[in-house]
Design a protein that fits this description.
With 461 residues, this protein is α/β, with parallel strands linked by helices. Helices cover 48% and strands 11% of the residues. It is built from 18 helices and 9 strands.
Length: 461
């Protein structure tokens, strides 16, 4: 039976009016009526759900709909808004609407201060969202059906959503989502489009096919041992942080952090990776290593070698990383999962499903390395296929992009005419076509690059 003190607290939540500012809401709406072009400023701070008074929420939603459907600012005046508001039932009749809209326009101190009014609304909305989370958590605690850890995870997730400006109240009308879609189209079509499209991988052919490393994508990179998948992942990570300046988090569940950094030093300094492992370096190589160490130290790359980590643990760490741009996990089959089952397919499916959700929640690309089944070795054509993904389960369904690495020389050393050519096979691409892209693999420096004078269209010619 719930503690009476908790019941009193719940009643207190119900009785109190949630934080809001009617005056600030009226000032925002009045400013837009006086200067319709100010709506674009308001949209940088607020959404319809930011308003507390339902009538204000619907009025703002109406203004946004007119904005996103092409109504010119100079046409979105008092009369147009009044007629549409009456038609939609926001006001019972024209007289009521005229009185209220007139009062909005007359009471706003200055349309130029709309940003300040919007900040007040955003602050109040954040406080209301926190109050809602607190109320819901209190209810869940009193019910006593969830473990403390589950409640902590739930609280952390909901507070994180508030920090990210996400609506924690459930379903959102498509007309509200249209605002973000409209703005995104403007962003990717404008002069600063590079800020908004997928992060460049450093491999132009791969970027042309996939659009780069796109936010919220789960990208699978799979290959048999010896194909260089860890090195390729490290190359991608370095290129992404160079291009964007954002933070890349690398979880190495197989190799130590020192081994990873040694590989990155080899690539950056162009020093034989074997020499870095043995320490047999020439004096001139020490200079290149020192310079490259400074370059790598200045990159926004964070490393972890935590073995047996779960998606929940990983997500809790990543939420605290500022300016996160990409996550690399090496590799899938070494991750742990709360689901305890002897059926590895079910366990792996649970992990990939939650990693896809993590990519979506954090709004960053997640590059997930994976093993392949040994069955590929028994075929004449040893190029990987999606059915070769080890303990595949839902990997194929959860992934947005699936990449395979294949080097003919690995299997046919005597017959291969291009020992350093690796094929990057785009086997699945939710954003477009599939293709096979040629890369040059330099194992001495653990580095991949694009072939010189490669002007052929994507695909093996």
């Amino acid at each position: 039976m719930p503690d009476s003190r908790f019941s009193e607290l719940q009643e207190g939540f119900a009785e109190r009016s949630l934080p809001h500012s009617t005056e600030a809401e009226q000032s925002v709406l009045g400013a837009i009526l006086l200067a319709p072009e100010m709506l674009s400023v308001a949209l940088e701070y607020i959404r319809p759900e930011t308003f507390y008074v339902e009538q204000h929420k619907e009025l703002f939603r109406l203004m946004v709909a007119m904005y996103t459907t092409g109504t010119q600012a100079e046409q979105m005046d008092y009369v147009v808004v009044l007629n549409e508001a009456v038609r939609q039932g926001i006001f019972e009749n024209e007289a009521e609407g005229r009185r209220y809209l007139t009062s909005l326009a007359e009471t706003v101190p200055s349309a130029d201060n709309i940003a300040s009014y919007c900040k007040i609304l955003a602050e109040k909305y954040c406080a209301r969202s926190l109050a809602t989370v607190a109320r819901d958590l209190l209810k869940e605690v009193t019910m006593g059906t969830e473990s403390a850890q589950t409640l902590l995870d739930s609280a952390e997730q909901r507070i994180y959503d508030i920090r990210q400006g996400r609506d924690t109240h459930g379903l959102v009308p498509i007309r509200d989502v249209m605002v973000d879609t409209y703005r995104h189209l403007g962003d990717i079509s404008g002069p600063d489009r590079e800020k908004y499209v997928g992060a460049k991988t450093g491999f132009s052919r791969l970027d042309a096919v996939t659009g780069g490393m796109n936010n919220s994508d789960l990208v699978i990179l799979a290959a048999r041992p010896g194909m260089g998948k860890t090195s390729f992942a490290l190359n991608l990570a370095s290129n992404v942080t160079r291009h964007t300046g954002r933070t890349v988090a690398i979880y190495s569940l197989e190799m130590s952090m020192e081994q990873l950094v040694s590989r990155m030093l080899s690539t950056e300094a162009l020093v034989d990776s074997h020499k870095l492992r043995t320490g047999r370096l020439e004096p001139k190589e020490w200079g290149r290593i020192a310079t490259s160490a400074d370059v790598l130290s200045g990159m926004n790359i964070y490393l972890s070698e935590a073995t047996g980590i779960t998606v929940s643990q990983m997500k809790a760490q990543l939420r605290r990383v500022k300016n996160l741009g990409m996550v690399v996990i090496d590799y899938l089959q070494l991750m742990d999962a709360p689901l305890k089952s002897e059926n590895r397919v079910l366990v792996i499916s649970d992990i990939t499903r939650n990693l896809k959700l993590m990519a979506k929640e954090l709004n960053v690309p997640v590059l997930l390395l994976s093993q392949l089944n040994r069955g590929v070795e028994s075929r004449t054509d040893k190029r990987p296929m999606m059915s070769d993904l080890r303990e595949s389960g839902s990997i194929e369904q959860d992934a947005d992009i699936i990449l395979f690495l294949y080097n003919d020389f690995y299997y046919m050393k005597e017959k291969s005419t291009a020992p350093n050519i690796t094929e990057c096979i785009v086997a699945k691409n939710r954003h477009g076509e599939t293709a096979t892209i040629k890369l040059v693999w330099d194992p001495q420096f653990t580095r991949f690059s694009t072939p010189e004078n490669d002007d052929a269209p994507p695909g093996v010619s």
